[in-house]
Amino acid sequence: MRTLDDLEVDGKVVLVRSDFNVPLADGVQGAKVITDDGRIRASLPTIEYLRAHGAKVVIMAHLGRPKGVRKPELSLAPVASRLGDLLGIQVQLGTDITGPVTAGLISALQPGDVLLLENLRFDARETSKEAAERQSLAGELAALGEIYVSDGFGVVHREQASVTDIARLLPAAGGRLVIAETEVFRSLLANPARPYVVVLGGSKVSDKLGVIGNLIGRVDRLLIGGGMAFTFLAAQGYEVGDSLLEADQIDQVKGFMAQAKDAGVELLLPVDVVIADEFSAEAKVQCVPSDLIPTGWRGLDIGPKTAALFTSKIADAQTVVWNGPMGVFEMPPFATGTQKVAEAVAAAPGVSVVGGGDSAAAIRILGLPESAFSHISTGGGASLEFLEGKTLPGITVLDEGH
10 Å Cβ neighbour count for 111? Predict the structure, then answer.
């Protein structure tokens, strides 16, 4: 894969696909406020390299799912402001995505300047399933620049105009973030140091079926928490009360458990759970063994015995991957399990990888130092598909070289 170091960018207009799909909240007078700027900060090494080497930087990104409709609440204006703060410069927001107005803004750029185009998904062609429509937008985008840099790892698992189609039209390279993410996940699938421990959480087991299936033959220990654990517990014959349960996945889960046993893989489930009588931070709360969840109650976190068990199984890991919280960490009564697992992953003696999405958000919300982890991925879906062993279109097109 070509990298930034292979490019001659001095004086060139470089189109950079970043992932700025950040969470927003309502601020003063209805203005949107970024609640987690982790993805913006992760984009800085590529942008700063290009600026330092005299490029005119034009960034393309999306926010939310506007489905081809221009929605003010999904404007990238807050991102342009925050990016400018982090870079110490003014980052102009192009109100159009392509066209003569955008071309005029680009023609006025000086080396080191940064322009952020408006939300790509305001144009329905960006995510169209019709290749011709995506290629139409990609052609318009490519006409704006001279070089393309892919640096939005969170979208490389998608066939999209600004991810795959444009990379076939311009000299293309992977940015610092995409290169780093790709190297990390390829190493996890190739020859990880052992013991190799994977911790999976999150709400739905159906979201992780491919990951579990691909990893059972590769890992030494598989620790299952979060809402997805209750389908595993139900597969053991336990009553799970009103806990999240995907009954249609029980047979699949039983198959995984049998595969793990045959492969000599430790598959560990919660031995106790924190339960509540309703989905609320003000709910009545108690801790019970995993096989004694009463009717009308729901599991919302792993219990202290489980947290201690998982911590002990992570303690000697030379490679540990964590994807998905252990409970509803946004509510203080149900955050302890996620905090304990995060601390254990951070303290592991070997390589520690956090697989994006809610896990990365949990680290920042719980106040843990990001430097304690070897790698925090910016791409939840992309990291999962990598671990599933799937082909990621946005990586493949870069490997092909253009």
Answer: 16
